[in-house]
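To the team - pyridoxal-5'-phosphate complex, inputs and output below.
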Amino acid sequence: MSWQNKLRQVEPYVAGEQPKIVNMIKLNTNENPYGPTEKIKEVLQNLNEDKLKLYPNSDGEDLRHALAKYHGLNDKQVFLGNGSDEVLALSFLTFFNGKEPILFPDISYSFYPVYCDLYQMAFEQVPLREDFTIDIKDYQKPNSGIIFPNPNAPTGLLLGLTAIEEVVKNNPNSIVIIDEAYIDFGGETCVPLIKKYDNLVVIQTFSKSRSFAGARLGVALGSEEAISHLYDVKNSFNSYPIDYITQQVALASVLDSQDMKKKCQMIISTRERTKTKLKELGFIVPDSYANFVFVKHPQIDGEELFLALRKVGIIVRHWNKPRIDQYLRITIGTDEQMDRLFAFLENYIHEKSNG
Ligand SMILES: Cc1ncc(COP(=O)(O)O)c(C=O)c1O
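Output:
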């Protein structure tokens, strides 16, 4: 016997790298290329350092209230956590405790199976169709919970509200979590369905559309009952997951949501230009509604292209996994960054086709 026999050994999630390459174009973790708004800069300049000696408001009351108003819910339907990864981790722990497997797509956010392993929960990775779309009929079997991102990650494909409602309606005895990390980039949120279904929980993040990856804020929205259970679990784990500074800047972001929408619109228009350009270069480009595209080139190996891009300081994401090892996920950066990517690809493909 040794202490090693009593370990919980897990294979952790591997986040996209944060390399320290000078002048790199970082298109690998779906961050927002546009910085925080003027209002957030003002808040940062006017922070009260004296507040740092005290614990922050444990439930982020002002922020919860502003978010409730933004989403047309009441304050008790809003849960805040330290990034949506934490909100997801607490949600699995709170909602997914049956004996049947938890269902999620085989190509999806790769943190989900990690949470299942950590908590020793059974799960089933439901294959997407050949074209990476979700067949909602696959989610009509006994389960302890259902989760998928919408738009899906890393494919970027969007499922319509009617299909989502079908899944929620057909599973009244399970919580269905829709991970809307990328919903602000052109999708339609299913938050309005929360009024109709107490088994729907929607998780959103400030990391993408609100340019907030460095501050860490995630949100769960659901029925008062579901959210109160999530708070019970969170309060059995960490009373103060969101620091004073994050609460202040996130509040400013919610109150200045027009700025977020304007920046999302800029990213959407760059994304559409990117899709057109990559198709012209021969790439297969599923129709992304997120701030990234998921693409492959029929004549170029995925890993080879990933490494070639890296060599010139353009960092994208590649997974050595079945079904997707030929694909690259490319975050939408500024127009200038994307132009540099296109120039490289044009050249690379030209040289390759000329032997
Ligand atoms: C689908 C999905 N959900 C959740 C997250 C986690 O985001 P965060 O923890 O930064 O809020 C990500 C991050 O890339 C994601 O792609």
